[in-house]
Write a structure and sequence with these properties.
The structure is a homodimer. By secondary structure, chain A is an alpha+beta fold. Chain A has one domain: Arc Repressor Mutant, subunit A (Orthogonal Bundle), CATH 1.10.10.10. Chain A has five helices and three strands, in the order H-H-E-H-H-E-E-H. Chain A has a three-stranded antiparallel β-sheet. In chain A, strand 2 and strand 3 form a beta hairpin. In chain A, helix 1 packs antiparallel against helix 4 and helix 2 packs across helix 4. The first copy, chain A, is elongated. The N and C termini of chain A lie far apart (54 Å). In chain A, 26% of the residues are buried. The interface between A and B is medium-sized, with 30 and 30 residues. Chain A binds a DNA duplex through helix 4.
DNA sequence: TTCATTGTTAGGCATATACCTAACTAATCA
DNA sequence: TGATTAGTTAGGTATATGCCTAACAATGAA
């Protein structure tokens, strides 16, 4: 049962890098192997693997190894946790605007009396 | 006009820390001064100011100083950029599921033929 | 069984991050 | 004017991050 503060740290941290966002974007189109994922990037493979590790540790990606090939998959559930944190902030914000709006409307009604 | 990769780096980076998320959550309820924002945290003020700086540089927070008091405000527009990146990934993912679903349905129709 | 492919581990380096204390400026209050 | 409040700047430390090369499995193909 995730969605604690520590998880969010790792999820947002994982998203804070263009390489990792690109990998995740690729994986939302479907699973892929490590070397397929690495291909578009110019960095050395061990460097790339570190990015994958960050993604896995955040829960945004899982992988399993068959033979010598590791296949990675996006975990949308984890991405959703991040999205929900943001959505909650928006809800609070909009609640505030609603109250402001209600206040302004209450002023108008008062004027009409 | 923003929403380039570099901006997203900074936004997600800013969100990847519990102190900064707490500050932002506080600010979605309305503006607050630096020392009000700092009060709940045990860290030294200069440390806290660094977090504020990260939030400002990401565009998630703006501030203005009047007299000796600096007042901070959340910028939901910036938060929305992060939300939209995630939403886009979800759309791709769900598109994939839709196609899978369509494929499965096409198989069923084939079976019926 | 030898070779190529696919990934992994170890270790090093430069910069960034997250914290601190000390000392400072600028505005307001008594 | 002198003290207090609000914030800032400077500079130091420890750890984390993002990259690298070199060397090492382990699997699969010839």
């Amino acid at each position: 049962m995730p969605n604690n503060e520590h998880d969010l740290d790792n999820v947002f941290q994982a998203l804070a890098d263009p390489t990792r966002r690109a990998v995740l974007a690729r994986l939302t189109e479907g699973p892929a192997t490590v070397s397929d994922l690495a291909k578009p990037f110019e960095m050395a493979l061990p460097s790339f693997l570190q990015h994958l590790k960050v993604l896995e540790e955040s829960g945004l990606v899982t992988s399993k190894k068959e033979g010598r090939v590791r296949t990675c998959e996006a975990q949308m559930k984890t991405l959703t946790e991040a999205e929900e944190w943001i959505a909650h902030q928006r809800a609070v914000w909009e609640g505030r605007l609603d109250r402001l709006d209600a206040y302004l409307r209450s002023l108008q009604s008062t004027e009409k009396e």
